[in-house]
Design brief:
By secondary structure, the protein is of the alpha/beta class. The protein is built from 18 helices and 21 strands. Strands 1, 2, 3, 4, 5, 6, 7, 8, 9 and 10 form a 10-stranded mixed β-sheet that branches. A 6-stranded mixed β-sheet has the order 19-18-17-16-21-20, with helices on both faces. Helix 8 packs across helix 9 and helix 15 runs parallel beside helix 16. The longest helix has about 100 residues.
Length: about 675
């Protein structure tokens, strides 16, 4: 049963295409305005329909096909954006696979014929009874964007002041919007783009539908406010009322009570369990999810708790011939998600019960007319354990009672009456066939519409891909051009490097004997880039480090014991250091009598990896080191004597007095 009302407190608009097509020609619509009592019928254009909706702000805008108002899904989203916040678009014929309007109208006792105005009236009356589903393209979230209301182009000498003023106004307006949202108690997130003097824009994502936003959109002076709902991933539907369908219920009682719900098609709907719920809570949970046709248990006989719940619904009972084995329950519920063994047992009971009644349900469906409520009749047949014919006869009795009371039925119809009956039966069959064909036609129309949408999307994607291919071709051409330039630069660099190497070779050939350099009052210097083992070995491999060479450490920091020992092995005449040297390395070099001088004392001239220094500077640096070494030795010897005296005195203080007298 559906909880439906005969009329709404607000106005309902029913529309149907009168002529034209929204996808091409300018359409006109049959409009029926229904307030629950009075009807207004008129013909309007598409734009006038929108104006009437925006002026009247009806609660529902009802139609039998939403694509009579929009050419495609994108157009439908734009149409929904133009509706007032409290107006909902309703498709009265169902959701993704709508039924023919005639069938829905007949089912709910609403007058119908194929005239567009009559179809518009039928749609309005059905929506007023809460028949159909609301079309939804937006979530319950809204974006509020505060941005500049003016362009900040070239402004001459006052451009900075002009820009600062506009950005300041945007920031002030953003604060006003934030205050309004906070006063309304709405949760929101804010994202701002800071610019010179304030904000260029501020975007608020509000956790509320657009109808609850306490600010209005529009342009005011230097600022603009745009308010838009957040779109869903696609179009979906929401029933105007929640229909409580007939269901099979399985219950597993005990310390933990579990319930499983299965629909009449045998599909698991929901499971639930609780350790604290009483019987009233269990019954209330079941009522919220459907009307039980049958209550089942997985053991025999039915537990008392399950029996009490079954009697409260006046539902049929089902128990297995023997307790259901665990392996069978596991196999039957393998495709369903359950939280624990109790939910599994409850759901298994409902599924096995449905398996037993599957043939009965199929037989009832075959015999039930299309216009009848299938679920209701199936529920009565199972719950009351009666035949489908008896249920159909009981439902038909109120309609035929008056005719039966008029007098006794003739014993045997005349040939003319039999012919009339045959023709009526044929008409009913043909009408049913026509309705089926209309339903198939509507389905095909929807398929065509979907295919058109897909074709439009495919064309758009093809255009995008074509643009992408053109851009890729341009980028490849530019890449080839740059690679050609790079190759030219590389060849030029290689030519210069070869020329440089030849010059170096010639210079080395002219100065291959470093002693020649010494004859000119200069001393060759071997350059080591860093005071590391790797750098020492690299320099030794490049031009050799022999005993008596002057070594220049371009970076003397960070050396350890192993590095210092490696340099000492070459027995350099002098080590010229640039920067500080570690204490460990300094001590090892001192102990090995290797002179060390700062780079400031020696003027070094470098040509690539080759370097020379004046012999006078070298000798002065060595003499300076010798003076410092002598002073350092004296300091160390004095310190050593002081330490020996201190240790001796300490030993005497710690010794026994008698031992001192003996000594």
């Amino acid at each position: 049963m559906s909880t439906r009302t005969d009329a709404l407190d607000a106005v309902v608009f029913g529309v149907d295409v009168q002529s034209g097509d929204v996808r091409g020609d300018t359409p006109s619509y049959a409009l029926c305005v229904f307030d629950g009592t009075d009807l207004e019928r008129t013909n309007v254009s598409y734009h006038k329909l929108l104006r009437r909706v925006q002026e009247t702000e009806p609660a529902l805008l009802a139609t039998d096909n939403m694509y009579e108002l929009a050419a495609d899904k994108d157009d439908l989203v734009r149409f929904l954006k133009r509706l007032p916040a409290q107006t909902r678009l309703v498709q009265v014929t169902g959701e993704q696979r709508p039924e023919p309007l005639s069938r829905v109208a007949n089912r709910h006792g609403v007058p119908y014929n194929s005239d567009p105005m009559a179809e518009a009236e039928a749609a309005a009356r059905l929506a007023a009874r809460n028949v159909g589903s609301a079309v939804r393209a937006f979530t319950d979230r809204t974006t509020v964007k505060v941005s500049r209301g003016r362009s900040i182009g070239k402004g001459g000498s006052s451009e900075d002041r002009y820009t600062r003023r506009i950005h300041g106004h945007v920031k002030t307006e953003a604060r006003r919007v934030a205050s309004a949202l906070e006063e309304a108690g709405l949760d929101f997130e804010r994202s701002v783009t800071e610019k010179y003097g304030g904000f260029s824009n501020a975007v608020f994502t509000v956790e509320a539908p657009i109808s609850e936003i306490p600010v209005s959109g529009g342009r005011s002076g230097d600022t603009r406010i745009e308010i838009e709902p957040v779109e869903r991933d696609g179009i979906d539907f929401e029933p105007l009322v929640t229909r409580r369908d007939r269901v099979f219920v399985g219950i597993d009682p005990g310390t933990t009570t579990a319930v499983g719900i299965v629909d009449l098609d045998g599909e698991p709907l929901e499971t639930w369990h609780s350790r604290t719920a009483d019987m009233a809570t269990v019954i209330e949970w079941i009522i919220e999810r459907g009307r039980p046709v049958l209550v089942a248990a997985d053991v025999t006989p039915m537990p008392e708790t399950v029996e009490k719940i079954r009697r409260s619904f006046d539902a049929a009972a089902w128990t297995p011939t023997a307790d259901l084995p665990v392996d069978e329950k596991l196999h039957r519920t393998r495709n369903a998600a359950t939280a624990n063994d109790h939910e599994r047992d409850a759901l298994a009971a409902a599924l096995f019960a449905h398996d037993d009644y599957a043939d009965t349900i199929e037989r009832v469906i075959r015999k039930v007319p299309r216009s009848a409520d299938r679920d209701e009749i199936v529920g009565e047949v199972i719950a009351e354990d009666v035949s489908v014919e008896a249920v159909l006869r009981d439902r038909a009795e109120p309609e035929t009672g008056a005719e039966e009371s008029a007098g006794p039925e003739p014993a045997e119809p005349s040939p003319e009456q039999r012919r009339i009956n045959d023709l009526e039966t044929q008409v009913d069959r043909l009408q049913s066939h026509v309705e089926d064909l209309k339903g198939r036609l509507d389905t095909k129309d929807e398929t065509i519409s979907d295919l058109r949408d897909k074709l439009s999307d495919a064309k758009r994607e093809e255009r995008t891909e074509a643009r992408t291919r053109r851009e890729v071709s341009k980028l490849r051409w530019e890449n080839d051009r740059l690679e050609a330039e790079l190759d030219e630069q590389r060849r030029a660099r290689e030519t210069l490097e070869e020329k440089l190497e030849r010059l170096k070779a010639l210079w080395k050939l002219d100065h291959s004997n470093f002693a020649d350099v010494a004859q000119e009052g200069l001393t060759p210097v071997k350059v080591i880039e860093k005071f590391t083992v790797e750098a020492i070995e690299t320099a030794d491999a490049a031009y050799g480090i022999a005993a008596g060479d002057v070594v220049y450490l371009r970076d003397a920091s960070g050396a350890g014991r192993r590095t210092a020992e490696r340099l000492i092995e070459h027995e350099p005449r002098l080590v010229v250091r640039n920067g500080g040297i570690s204490d460990v390395a300094d001590q090892l070099l001192f102990e090995a009598d290797v002179p060390v001088a700062p780079a400031e004392m020696v003027t070094i001239q470098e040509v690539d990896e080759l370097a020379v220094a004046r012999e006078d500077d070298i000798e002065a640096a060595i003499a300076d080191w010798a003076d410092r070494a002598e002073e350092r030795s004296r300091s160390q010897n004095a310190a050593m004597v002081d330490q020996i005296i201190s240790e001796h005195r300490a030993d005497r203080r710690d010794a026994d007095p008698s031992e001192l007298l003996d000594s």
